[in-house]
């Protein structure tokens, strides 16, 4: 195995995702190549430092600061719902009014026709 | 089960067990059914992991504002959350977008060019007291300042995998990259981090 190929496989080797025969070939290469051995050791040490760090959390609970925004967004979303309901009722009213107008016109025409016949 | 009985895990590396994912689904249902407190529980559960990710991506006070932006976006989009991925994964993808948008604004870079922002050649912040890097706080600062010299996409992959412990599949869902792309790009990012961190490894050894 060449050094370049060995270096490409180091992350997988570290994660223990490397399957045979690559795993064996890389182990063999690392045993023979001082430079790659040092690279691998540096990678392991760097990742050990990173993995050893605790999570970086906010100094204080962020909820008290977020709560007013939460209320604002909820209100905004509820206004949106009310607006949608208003539009729904306006459309319903328009449709009913249109239906009523057609009904009245038909009745009046029918009445006029009956008047003419009599 | 009341909201008060729902456990809040504020720490512990991720890969949440099934019960945790179930409790998220339960809380989302409660919230969508009108229980506002359920969102507070979700917020308190995820503020630390999200802050951790955001603060690895952007430095300083911005992390506080951006963490809140992540939850604002989540709140607005919660009705559209279909549950096809874990809630945490969905939240991480919102955090990813929020962070990359901020970095785009600050770097004035175009959408596609963020990926190609070169790593910065300058050395990390040397105001760090090298005699105190054995202390966790200084070590956090050191690691963050080294991370800040990496391109945003590399920083993101390291933050998701090595700080937040997401699986490759979850990272693929968060970033929209294929699995093989995640693997190869993460490896490249780690090698860059290793090279940048090398001068400090000796100091750590001496400390």
Could you explain the architecture of this structure?
Chain A has 118 residues and is mostly helical. Chain A has two domains: 50 residues, no CATH class; 39 residues. With 207 residues, chain B is mainly alpha-helical. Chain B has one domain: RNA polymerase sigma factor, region 2, helix turn helix motif (Rna Polymerase Sigma Factor, Chain: A), CATH 1.10.1740.10. Helix content of chain B is 64%, strand content 0%. Chain B is globular, with a radius of gyration of 18 Å. The N terminus of chain B is likely disordered. The chains are: A mainly alpha (118), B mainly alpha (207).
Strand content of chain A: under 5%
The topology string of helices and strands of chain B comes to HHHHHHHH
Q: Indicate the CATH architecture of chain B.
A: Orthogonal Bundle
Give the domain tally of chain A: 2
Distance between the termini of chain B: 50 Å
Core attributes:
A: 118 residues; mainly alpha; 2 domains; 5 helices; 81% helix; 0% strand; B: 207 residues; 8 helices; 64% helix
Task: Sum this structure up briefly.
By secondary structure, chain A is mainly alpha-helical.
């Amino acid at each position: 195995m060449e050094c370049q190929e060995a270096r490409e496989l180091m992350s997988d080797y570290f994660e223990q995702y490397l399957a045979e025969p690559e795993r064996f070939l890389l182990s063999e290469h690392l045993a023979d190549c001082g430079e790659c051995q040092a690279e691998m050791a540096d990678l392991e040490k760097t990742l050990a430092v990173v993995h050893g760090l605790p999570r970086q959390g906010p100094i204080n609970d962020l909820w008290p600061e977020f709560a007013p925004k939460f209320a604002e967004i909820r209100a905004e979303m509820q206004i949106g719902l009310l607006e949608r309901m208003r539009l729904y009722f306006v459309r319903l009213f328009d449709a009913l009014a249109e239906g009523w107008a057609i009904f009245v016109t038909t009745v009046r025409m029918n009445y006029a026709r009956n008047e003419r016949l009599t | 089960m009341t909201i008060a009985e729902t456990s809040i895990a504020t720490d512990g590396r991720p890969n949440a067990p099934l019960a945790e994912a179930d409790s998220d689904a339960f809380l989302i249902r409660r919230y969508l059914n009108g229980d506002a407190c359920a969102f507070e529980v979700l917020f308190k559960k995820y503020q630390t992991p999200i802050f951790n990710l955001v603060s690895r991506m952007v430095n300083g006070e911005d992390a506080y504002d951006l963490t809140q932006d992540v939850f604002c976006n989540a709140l607005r989009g919660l009705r559209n959350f279909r549950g096809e991925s874990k809630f945490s994964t969905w939240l991480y993808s919102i955090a990813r977008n929020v962070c990359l948008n901020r970095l785009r604004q600050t770097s004035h870079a175009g959408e596609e060019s963020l990926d190609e922002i070169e790593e910065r050649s300058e050395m990390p912040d040397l105001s760090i007291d090298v005699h105190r890097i054995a202390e966790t706080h200084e070590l956090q600062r050191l690691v963050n300042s080294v991370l800040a010299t990496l391109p945003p996409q590399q920083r993101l992959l390291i933050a998701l995998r090595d700080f937040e412990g997401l699986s490759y599949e979850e990272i693929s869902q968060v970033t929209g990259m294929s699995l093989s792309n995640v693997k190869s790009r993460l490896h490249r990012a780690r090698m860059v981090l290793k090279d940048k961190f090398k001068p400090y490894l000796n100091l750590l050894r001496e400390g």
